[in-house]
Each structure stands twice: as C-alpha cells, then as structure tokens.
C-alpha cells in the first residue's frame, strides 16, 4: 500500500501539456447518511426495511434487502520498491478472504530485479536482504491470477495504486513473453469485479489515512502499519466499522460500491480515465477531456492518443487508445464492448 501523502490522491497518469496539469474537475461530494439514489444502486438497496402492518401476509420476501455475502470477497494490499509503475516492482502481496476479523489470508513475498528506494523502505521496512530467498513475481503469477478469477468483490484501501502495480507486473510478463516468442503465463483480469475502496467510501466525508480510519471506526490505534498482512487485516476491520457507522451494514456489495464511486458503472476498465457516454467512449483527463476517443483517432489530434500509448497510463487505457488508432470506429466500439461489456454504456445513458 502506498502511504505517503501523495498516494491519498488518485494518480491518473502524466499530463500531455501544462494546460492539463490541473486535472479533472471536482465532483460533488456525496453525504454518507444514506444509500445511493435508486438510479445508482440495485433496487434491493433502496427497498423498505419493513412492510406496513396492513401488508398482506404473502408479501414477497424480495422486498427486503438481500443479505450481503462475503463469498468471493478479496481484501488486498501490496508493498513495492517504489511508486513508478514503469520501473518499480511488487515485493509483497497479501490477500485476505473476506472482511471479518480472523478471516483467512495469504501473503507472498517476491525478489525484485530493481533496488528498493529509500523512501519505500522507510515506509514498509522490507530490505533486499529480506527478499534474497524469495521467488520472483513470475513464479507466482498464475496462482495469483487464478485467485482473482474466482473473486466477485475486490477490496483495498486506496486500491488504484495496488491494482496498477499488479497490472504492471503482468504487463512486464507479457512483454518478456513476446520477446521470447512465447505466450504470457497469465493475465490479471479485473473486468466484471465489484470494487469497494474504503478510502473512497470514507473520502466522501473525511479524507484520512488508514491509521486515522482505524482509530475512528475500530476504536483503537493501529500501530503495526505498512506490512501487507497488517494493512489488509486493518482494512477489513475499518470497512466493517464504516458500514455500521454509515448505515450500510445491511446493503449488498453493489450498493456499497455505488457509494464509493457512483460513476463507476460508466468506466471502461478499472480506472476512470475512459468512460462510456451513450454509445461512445470519452477521455476524461487532460486537454481533451470530454472528447470521444474514436473522433480523436480520426482527427487532427491522433498524436495525442499516440502520446497516451507511449506514457505511463494504465495498460487498459493505452490498449484502448491503440485500438482506436488501428480500427475503424464501429470495429473499435465493438471491440471495447466485447472486452469490457456494455453495462457502462447502459448506465451512462440511463443517468442522463
């Protein structure tokens, strides 16, 4: 988990020109006293908790909120050699299966091929000597990818950083395999997963660190910070406390994810860089924010998409932009729908 002050803001990649440095516009902050409006959450989230006294005895059970299941819930955290996705590597990964105290967890440590930065080591306390006998990430990549395949819900505090660093590891494996002329051993597929970030959930009210969150929502100090196993256990405890505090304990994971990121259904891939806008995909960052990707690819700003493809943006962003440059507009949109589904397009249209 990246825990320096900068990490508490989501990093959407480099800017194309100084004019874009201000980032995307601020979004309206949602109060967490209630669940999302019906247009942003499943019908079961906003259903009444109890029926009127005069209701028939045979009133359907489906009117009540469905119980939330922890089956397929992964809580994850990584420690890394630094914060640059292009060069830094994951050196520790912990996955906890469910958010309850005492839930089963698994921790991996990996031997990197780059030095650990002084700043990163000061945070997590892991040295190269500690990792001398550990396997490289590639040796565990298939096993970790298989665990993600079985997951329904992914939970992590400031999760974007952790997922980006893991995706960068799999991208390096893909490039190395291509150079050898062989197939990649695995891919990390997060498509279709429900994502719940306690940091984003809490950010709607009060931006704070994991330690502050633990003090408020668990009721005690969190001293063993910045090891992956300690952080995932704390994240599970914090989320359980948040759900009770914010009146969300009876809601399903879809409703909770809707509070974390109300616009997530319109995202193309696991970040907000690209979003559905009706039948088209728009870019949401930089000087061309709000422009349709397929129009940028056919117009005078093709070089902007080429620039995105060559910079430190998430893998899916670079791939979508490359496809936009290579394919006719209809074929491009069809490819994106095949890769990322059409749920986002429907949600974006319905929200108008």
Q: Low-confidence spans: pLDDT under 50, at least 5 residues? A: 3-63, 344-352
Please give the CATH class of the largest domain.
Answer: Alpha Beta
Count of discrete alpha- or pi-helical segments spanning 4 or more residues: 12
Helix content: 25-40%
CATH architecture of the largest domain: 2-Layer Sandwich
**Order of strands across the widest beta sheet?**
3-2-1-4-5
Main beta sheet: strand number and arrangement?
A: 5 strands, mixed
- Name given to the CATH homologous superfamily of the largest domain: Ribonuclease H-like superfamily/Ribonuclease H
Q: Tally the beta strands.
A: 7
Domain unit count: 2
Task: Give the overall form.
Answer: globular
> What gap, in angstroms, lies between the N and C termini?
36 Å
The SSE string, one letter per element, is: EEEHHEHEHHHHEEHHHHH
Question: How would the blueprint of this fold be written?
Answer:
Blueprint: E1 73-80, E2 90-97, E3 105-109, H1 118-124, H2 141-150, E4 153-155, H3 159-180, E5 194-196, H4 198-203, H5 210-217, H6 228-245, H7 253-260, E6 274-277, E7 280-283, H8 293-298, H9 302-309, H10 315-326, H11 329-340, H12 343-350
Parallel strand pairs: 1-4, 4-5
Antiparallel strand pairs: 1-2, 2-3, 6-7
Task: Provide the descriptors you would attach to this structure in a database record.
five-stranded mixed sheet; globular; 36% helix; disordered C terminus; Nucleotidyltransferase, domain 5; 2 domains; 352 residues; alpha/beta; 7 strands
């Amino acid at each position: 988990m990246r825990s320096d002050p900068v990490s508490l803001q989501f990093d959407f990649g480099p800017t194309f020109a100084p004019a874009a440095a201000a980032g995307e516009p601020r979004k309206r902050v949602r109060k967490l006293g209630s669940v999302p409006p019906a247009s942003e959450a499943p019908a079961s989230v906003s259903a009444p908790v109890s029926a009127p006294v005069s209701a028939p005895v045979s009133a359907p059970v489906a009117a009540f909120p469905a119980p939330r299941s922890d089956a397929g819930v992964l809580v994850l955290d990584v420690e890394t050699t630094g914060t640059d996705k292009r060069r830094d590597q994951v050196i520790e990964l912990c996955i906890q299966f469910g958010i309850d105290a005492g839930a089963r967890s698994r921790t991996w440590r990996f031997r990197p091929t780059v030095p650990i930065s002084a700043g990163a080591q000061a945070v997590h306390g892991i040295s190269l000597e500690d990792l001398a006998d550990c396997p490289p990430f590639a040796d565990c990549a298939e096993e970790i990818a298989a665990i993600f395949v079985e997951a329904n819900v992914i939970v992590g505090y400031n999760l974007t950083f952790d997922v980006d660093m893991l995706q960068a590891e799999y991208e390096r494996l893909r490039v190395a395999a291509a150079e050898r002329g062989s197939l990649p051993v695995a891919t990390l597929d997060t498509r279709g997963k429900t994502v719940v970030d306690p940091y984003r959930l809490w950010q709607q009210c009060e931006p704070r660190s994991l330690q502050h969150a633990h003090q408020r929502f668990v009721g005690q100090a969190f001293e063993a910070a910045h090891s992956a196993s300690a952080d995932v256990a704390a994240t599970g405890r914090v989320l359980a406390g948040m759900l009770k505090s914010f009146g969300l304990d009876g809601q399903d994971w879809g409703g909770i994810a809707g509070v974390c990121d109300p616009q997530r259904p319109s995202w193309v891939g696991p970040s907000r860089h690209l979003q559905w806008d009706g039948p088209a995909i728009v870019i949401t960052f930089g000087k061309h924010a709000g422009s349709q990707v397929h129009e940028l690819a056919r117009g005078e700003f093709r070089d902007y998409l080429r620039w995105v493809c060559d910079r430190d943006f998430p893998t899916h962003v670079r791939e979508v932009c490359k496809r936009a440059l290579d394919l006719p507009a209809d074929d491009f949109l069809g490819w994106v729908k095949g890769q990322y589904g059409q749920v986002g397009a429907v949600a974006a249209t319905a929200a108008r």
